[in-house]
Design goal:
Elements: E1 4-15, E2 18-29, E3 33-37, H1 44-51, E4 68-71, E5 75-78, H2 90-100, H3 106-111, H4 127-141, E6 145-149, H5 157-172, E7 176-180, E8 191-194
Parallel strand pairs: 3-7, 3-8, 5-6, 6-7
Antiparallel strand pairs: 1-2, 1-4
The structure holds adenosine-5'-triphosphate (ATP).
Adenosine-5'-triphosphate binds at residues 15-16, 18, 20, 38, 40-46.
Amino acid sequence: MTATALTATDLCCRRGDRWLFSGLSLNLARGEALHVLGPNGLGKSSLMRMLAGLLPPSPDPVSGITGAIAWDGPLALMDERHGLDLGQPLGAALAFWARVDGPVPDEAINGLGLANLLDVPVRYLSTGQKKRAALARLIGQNAANWLLDEPLNGLDVAACAMVERMIARHCAGGGACIIASHQPLDIPALTRLDLAEYAL
Ligand SMILES: Nc1ncnc2c1ncn2[C@@H]1O[C@H](COP(=O)(O)OP(=O)(O)OP(=O)(O)O)[C@@H](O)[C@H]1O
């Protein structure tokens, strides 16, 4: 039997006065990657934050039921908030998180093309370089479960392919991954969730 990574039931999301989605239940098995799709403003990032435990599920407006989320194992969220100190050189900014999460292996630093950027202040990094740095942080967290919000934004073609391979390797190694992205993803056995089906 395949081990479960995530069980989420009856998720409903309201932000401010706006109801976004309801009745969303999903199961994710170890080794599985799920692509969350949907038009701008539908609630993909909100769902990712909810799954990360940063936004509580809202009570359903009809049934009053408040959904639940259960993960097996630690999770890591990567979104546009890279959490790296803009005033520090990249190496020092990553070293801060290494003391919290664990070190980023040299292999990952090299593979992400960051080795020559470690003395560059984070604020000077390009969009794609900051995204690569965020991916390094993700790897350093060594979490079984990944939540990736628009992981390909700002990356060049080769880096997009590298991230797809990273996700495939992570899942092949028993990890699980949910990816919110407007971009097509070339990842083996990827399943899809169209958030529009749950829109309110
Ligand atoms: N903190 C907040 N307070 C109130 N409304 C919010 C808040 N954050 C987001 N929203 C609203 O929730 C809706 C969904 O936003 P969200 O970022 O989850 O959408 P998305 O599907 O990820 O969009 P995109 O594809 O553009 O990234 C938007 O209408 C947004 O304005």
